[in-house]
Fold these 2 entries.
Entry 1:
Amino acid sequence: MPLDKGLKDFFWNYGYLTIDSLLSAEILSSLLYQLAPIWVSKNAPKGILNFEIQDWKLKNGKNRLQDLWTVIPEVRELAINSYILNILEFLFDDKPRPFQTLNFPVGTQQSVHSDALHFNSKPFGKMCGVWIALEDIEPSSGPLFYYPKSHLLPELSEGLLGFMPVSDNYSKVIEYWEEQIEINKYERTQAILKKGQVIIWHGNLLHGGMPRNDSFTTRHSQVTHYYFGDAKPWRQMESLNEIQYFEPNWIPIAAR
Ligand SMILES: O=C(O)CCC(=O)C(=O)O
């Protein structure tokens, strides 16, 4: 895929970009092969960050593992894939810094949200997510959905909302987003991707997971988050009295 201005304009106009990745089929298959016994046994792999809590959650119905990159090389390889990193650098004109991977065996059914609320940046807008289909995505499996152009909404603030966008007010933030979707006539779009396809979303793009109409269909996917350049990470949901900056567990990138 040529990295041209049209691609960049599309991303900044719509807030996302779908790419036919050059990810190696062997890596994807090898990753699925390693993940299978984990999802079946519901044993988090030893050595993963926050093993105890993740293992407990997995055994108690949470279908996701965070930061598997710490124990499965293929997860890290996808997170630091040079093809993806080059596109990100081209889109943001800055060096991408990967952090936090999430692996899901099934649809998340997450309600609409932006990543910026969870992982904000100073300056605003220097963060994105990259979602990789590890298998062909079936419409009944609860695909990822997103609202093109919603990344153009302003940064959340007390001045904008009339309340602080912190954890206690999360349901009110969701109401605000739902109102904005109506007002701006944003159209929900589903990511029915093929194995190896990738979607990049801007950190302020509204997205979530569709309901799973078929609870037997898997929906293996991996998400990695990225900050750019020297943007400072902060957690808006925890920033009641002052900005809560934090240092992510950065995923090391070998020299490119
Ligand atoms: O994969 C999905 O269904 C949603 C993922 C998501 O919302 C996220 O990682 O922020």
Entry 2:
Amino acid sequence: MENLKDGDFTAQAESILQRYPREQRFALAMMQDFQKEYDYLPREAIRRIAGYLEVPPGKIYSLATFYKAISMEKKGKYIIKVCDGTACHIRSSTWIIEEIGKLLGIKPGGTSADGRFSLETVKCLGTCALAPVMVINDEYFGSLTVGKVKKILQRYGGRADEE
Ligand code: FES
């Protein structure tokens, strides 16, 4: 099981499942609770939900892949969201995304091999006047350039300092 201590996980899983009646309409809420607890939906959680609801695990798995809000991949310590909305796109957000990908060796939707960074693209961060913009966890960075991105990632311990 993915870095989860079995005893702890069993107790946690039980406490989540017991919040809900054994009805399929609560499957999404259960998945969200697991994700809140672990920052992603562990595969073992899918098995537990399926067992609790007495449905095949494949059914829960399909639901999990259907909902964009559910992630089955463990996210990095730092989640980088680069805006690729219209205002940011016309100000070269594509280059920013490419540069981050090059520096960290990840593509949008991926997590670096050291588990430090996840890269995502979003449609608007609500700060279009500062385009192009990205946010790392809760910290916003605007008027980005390729050079600025390198410096910012250095602060977070990215491999940019090896370039
Ligand atoms: S389009 Fe990028 S912040 Fe709005």
